[in-house]
């Protein structure tokens, strides 16, 4: 079958990539219909890319890509405004993939989606919001969606291509903690907070944007931004900005994680607990084992094929 995957940004596309690979490996034709700024991310992920549409509610290019092929299945990121509409116009089945917790649309969002659908002669139906099924790679309790057509899937960590830094192949003398995500100014605050932690700290940050005078402790190694899934297998814990891709990558590997969306207060003590509290590691390993029981993306392919037959 002909499968069109679509997402508005590179990170959201990366969330779809493992399912796209599974469909391609099963023998289906797969294309990524994405804005111009995401074409290189699609190509770098091994997907055939079609430049389609602009941002936000500019969905004409996406609709045209789905209709002209025509697609038989559209796989769209949960942030996509037009994935369901494009599928309906093309007469295709369609599924949503969650890359962040499910949030039901409010009246204003529903009105805008109704207007967009109406421009193509379509009536608003709930599948434009939820898909005919929802593929959920998020850890338990995170997605917030338990409606019909809920398809939990094992997360496959991927947030872009990268080479493994050579130093990671050497056994760390101390626990290794990854600090990733967030603005450079926030990273500077984190660097101060981790100064006294007895661990090897690896920080991914655009070093050119660090505030002047930022002090980098001797046990801290700075790396230019790179995919967390490449670094996590070598780390004992991760501190991040709440990015779903990073959280899922840590969860599927059983790496204890600290989400800094609530601030860096007490960071040293919180990181020490990640490293020293057996209960924290046990919980991370239980989550890993629970995720491992889910079907792989390849295991979902028959379900998706069934939507088209």
UniProtKB/TrEMBL annotation:
Domain Erythromycin biosynthesis protein CIII-like C-terminal: 189-264
SUPFAM superfamilies the record matches: UDP-Glycosyltransferase/glycogen phosphorylase
Pfam family, one: EryCIII-like_C
Region spans: Disordered: 289-309
Sorted UniProt keywords: Transferase
The organism's place on the tree of life at top rank: Bacteria
Gene3D superfamilies noted in UniProt: Glycogen Phosphorylase B (3.40.50.2000)
GO molecular function terms attached to this record: glycosyltransferase activity
Keyword tRNA-binding: no
Domain spans labelled Erythromycin biosynthesis protein CIII-like N-terminal: 59-182
Coiled-coil ranges per UniProt: none
Protein name as annotated: Glycosyltransferase
Gene, per the UniProt record: idnS15
